[in-house]
Amino acid sequence: MSSLDERLIARMLHHRTGNLEPGQPVQATLSPASTYFLPGTPNAKHQYGRWSNPTWEVLEDALAILEDAPVAIFPSGMAAIASVFMTHLGTGDRVLLPSDGYYTTRVLVEKYLAPHGVEVELRATADYATQDLSGFKLVFIETPSNPGLDICDVAEVAGRAKAAGALVVADNTTMTPLGQRPLNLGADLVVASDTKALNGHSDVLFGHVAARDAGLLEPVRDWRKFVGAIPGPFEAWLVHRGLESFEVRYERMTSTAAILAERFSAHPAIRSVAYPGLATHPGHEIAKRQMTRFGTIIGLTFADAAAADRFIENTSLIVPATSFGGVHSSAERRARWGDKVAEGYVRLSVGCEPTEALWEEINAVLDALA
Ligand SMILES: *Cc1c(COP(=O)(O)O)cnc(C)c1O
Prior knowledge:
37% helix; 12 strands
């Protein structure tokens, strides 16, 4: 981790402690308020619960330090993504989306924006390098793509997109700010599902949008206020709590993932391993330039669906589940959702289990499969 990231994490952990009065709780307080004391001319900081909330603010302050940019929080990753599309796309606009990215993002645009005259173009993440970016209003990047873990060069794509007049939006869910900082690489907006590693405890759906240009974030905040798809204060409080141990969890998860990826590559039960940190990954050189960690997700291709299912079902330290980024390692065969991946492709989310205990258990199952 760079010393900048370390300073941001330390500041984030203490973002409230400098202002405490004697006797106040050290941990953030939960304010489940819909109404606020509001006599006379309404100019109080908080006026109504759909517009603002003290617990939201605590979390937005913490996330803004982590992102190094102002943040608006949302009740899910999709709510965050939708806010950007709904406020920055209109009739006649063209949007470029990854054909191999998070499926629901494509459905959202195709089902709800295309009928209103937004033109959608799909391109595989690895092919963004050769895509002509002229004429797009918005270029949406997801690298590594979920679930295939393909890579595109954020700085290169963002540079060309912006020269062509497009807004660049990066879904940074798979990496988090601790693994990759798209805003530093030229993206205008970052969207993320905090349901994954950032909250990390598999108990909240959540999301956020970050942008350094206030003119880009303001409409997103207004959207939240007028549409009313707002985060619950308790969920915001839980994410703030999760955030405080995020760096420690991410450290364990990414270092275990890097070790496991090497060992998987050497195991005969596995046909191929997709992990941006491996020299065999086609995007490895780009990954080294733009990622500070190589992430917590590993793509494993087994001989067939049956072998993949046996791996998932027989490894007791791996929970069969969709989603990723939780403290418990989990895995699923992505073809079960119709993703365009091999039948034997498993997306493994590496959790916080002690590395060798996890490997010992995985290795025994792999040996039985080989
Ligand atoms: C999970 C995920 C989302 C959606 O987030 P939710 O919190 O489930 O709404 C968006 N993008 C990516 C890359 C994801 O993995």
